[in-house]
Amino acid sequence: MATIFDEMLKQAKAGNTEAQIRIAEAYFKGQGVMVNYLEALHWLTEAADKNKYASIQITKMYREGIGVKADLKKAFEISLEYANKGNEIQMFELAGYYLNGVGTETDLDSAISWYEKSYEAGYRDSAYFLGYIYQTNEKIKDINKAVEWYTKAADNNDPRACYNLGYLYFEGSSVLKNNEKALVYLKKALSLGIKEAEIIIDKINNESGYFTYSMLV
User: Which residue of 15, 58, 77, 152 has the fewest CB atoms within a 10 Å radius of its CB?
Assistant: First the structure.
């Protein structure tokens, strides 16, 4: 008598992407079958062209050595392959590899390029990272660009961008001090869960006290 796993495997072999993902998960977690990471990897690879998250799981396995020998260069190469196929999540991941020199040489220009591509492809988290790079990296520091990208991120409810914008407008050394704008972004950051924003809000409202700022990354 065929099991649920057998039926799903049959569908996976016939090219059903959802079934391929479920079979990969079954092998990965030992659900209805013995754990077999190589089989999990095989079915993730089969699904990766149609399921964006399958390739992410593959690169995670190689990056962290989950069921396979850790291989950062392999993780980078797979990320590059799927980024070039239009996977915006892998574009974002690839930017991080270039930014931090993981599995490849550090390449700031390539990191920025892939963050921009991922943002243009719809991966909005990239905006915060672009803002942070332009704010903090001494090689290309550009506060105007940092504010531009932070604003895009804040418009998409990124709490870190809201907090950093609020601080920049409050502190007023790199942009024109504007407590009204600072309060807008800080209150939004607070509503999105960054409790530290309340300290600057109180500082603005009370015009007294001392504040020590720690950048949230």
Answer: 15
Q: What's the whole-model pTM score?
A: 0.88
* Residue ranges, the chain, pLDDT below 50: 208-217
Q: Which value, to the nearest 10 degrees, does the dihedral of the CA atoms of residues 33, 35, 37, 43 take?
A: 20
**Each residue of 8-44: pLDDT tens digit?**
999 999 999 999 999 999 999 999 899 999 999 999 9
Domains of the chain listed by start with CATH number: 142-217 (1.25.40.10)
